[in-house]
Amino acid sequence: MPQADPLDYTKRIPYEVLARLRAESPVWRAPSGVWLFSRFDDVQAATKDIESFKSSFREPGVAVPEEEQLISEIAEPRHGKIRRIVNSAIAAHRLGRVEPFARELCADNLQKIIARGGGELMDEYVMPLPTSVIATLLGVPASDFGLWGQWSGDVVQGDYPTKNRSERGEGFTGAHPEFAAYVDRQIRERRSASEPPDDFVTRLIRTEVDGESLSDVEIRMLMVFLLVAGNETTRNLIGNLLVTMGQDESLFRRLQGDPDLIPIAVEESLRLDPPTAVLLRDCIRDTEVRGVPIRAGEKVAFGIASANRDESHYDEPDRFRLDRPDPKHHLAFGGGPHVCPGSVLARLEARVAVEVFLESVVEMKLKPGYLREKVPVFWANGPSRLPVALAARVPA
Ligand code: HEM
Questions:
Q1: Which range of residues forms the domain containing residue 160?
Q2: 61-76: per-residue pLDDT in tens?
Q3: CB of 32 within 8 A of CB of 278?
Q4: Could you give the CA distance from residue 248 to residue 129 in angstroms, rounded to a whole number?
Q5: Alpha carbon 340 to chain centroid, angstroms
Q6: Which mutation among 340, 344, 351, 375 tests ligand 1's pocket best, with the greatest number of atoms within 8 A of CB?
Q7: If you take atom 37 of ligand 1, which residue's CA is the nearest one?
Q8: Could you tell me where the beta strands, DSSP code E, fall in the chain?
């Protein structure tokens, strides 16, 4: 079943093959050498097993200095300490500030699209939202939001961001020197200001972990990770749900008639089309899963997209349903100590984007012949484009 190789999900996720793997070979070695866990219980247990599996976006054998590690790669107990800083930075923005900002941005952008009778929703409606929210959270001026969106896309395009590390002589952020220089400037400005703004970068500069400040490189690594983690994933969540609504008029009408169902639709979209289809890990000690030996040094993929359709956890796993007993029962945000700290923000953004859309649009028509093409990145799952015609809802 070579098409189930998780490193090959650049065009599509082979759901029918994954169903066979769950039934016949739930711990399976793909042709690329990567182990794929396809069942819910195994993926969930593995996200918690940080003694055996360590997050890695890198090719086997590629090691980087500690300060260049991404937050998802940092081992405990240091990870927990840095994680608290990230949690508090995100929480600071939960307090009612994001929602009105997000609502206004969505309404403005949508009005422009509606005035033209339609447009490209991914670029014009969806992407500006997570980019602006994350940039605001990190303290980036509004005039630079566009640049951030572009950089985020550039960084995500690589399958393994550090693949050409030796050629470039740079790390993850080095994949985008302009971005690295920008962040370094932000750090310098705050270090030299007598009253730096109360934002994420200032928080990071002032924070000590184990009695030591974070270095500029560590701060930069956190910024780039947050930028990518918060942007592409949320973009894909909103895009997936809008495509589903565009393809299923009865769902569109149901959500329009009963907006209280929107948060449930967001969860069901996260389950059925998780924005992060697979999580890559390095096995760091010899272990066994379902009796299958996995050796230290081997690559492992946690099959989120497969686990979320595991028939032993869901009735009609391939159907979009709004009546599941526990809508949040899915692994779209991972699990264990590295579980996504941005889930509240992502859910809020998706709910607001869909609410504003349904408040303003009476009819959405996908461009004739539209096919849901996936973004060409193996771990990411979202539509690359969404061209639509829209008709405005006449205010009562
Ligand atoms: C729909 C949107 C999102 C999805 C599906 C998503 C998914 C995930 C997943 C699956 C992980 C676990 C990674 C792993 O175990 O290797 C993760 C981690 C992370 N996410 Fe999200 N995420 C989303 C939005 C966000 C947002 C909005 C932010 C920031 C504001 C964010 C920041 C992070 C960070 C910093 C981590 C690393 C946590 C750690 O290693 O401790 N994410 N996300």
A1: 2-392
A2: 666 777 778 888 888 8
A3: no
A4: 24
A5: 9
A6: 340
A7: 72
A8: 27-29, 35-37, 53-55, 118-120, 208-209, 212-213, 278-283, 287-289, 292-294, 299-303, 361-366, 387-392
Nearest CA to ligand 1 atom 36: 340
Q: What is the DSSP string of 43-83?
A: HHHHHH-TTTEEE--S-TT----GGG--GGGPPTTHHHHHH
How far, in Å, from the CA of 231 to the mean position of ligand 1?
Answer: 10
What's the token pair of residue 134?
């994350």
CB of 72 closer than 6 A to ligand 1? yes
- Beta strands 278-283 and 212-213, pairing class: unpaired
Please identify which residue in the block is written with the tokens 């686990």: 307
Neighbour order of strands in the sheet with 53-55? 27-29, 35-37, 299-303, 278-283, 53-55
Provide, rounded to the nearest whole percent, the portion of the chain with pLDDT above 90. 60
Q: What is the CATH number of the domain that holds 25?
A: 1.10.630.10
Place of tokens 């994350």: 134
For residue 219, what are the CA distances in angstroms to 11, 21, 128, 222? 34, 41, 24, 5
Please return the burial class of 322, using the count of CB atoms within 10 Å of its CB with bins 0-12, 13-18 and 19+: middle
Distance CA 6, CA 4 (A): 6
- Give the pLDDT score at 160: 34
Q: Are 272 and 320 in contact (CB under 8 A)?
A: yes
- When divided into structural domains, the chain yields a total of 1
Give the pLDDT confidence of 205-224 residue by residue, as tens digits: 888 888 888 888 888 888 87
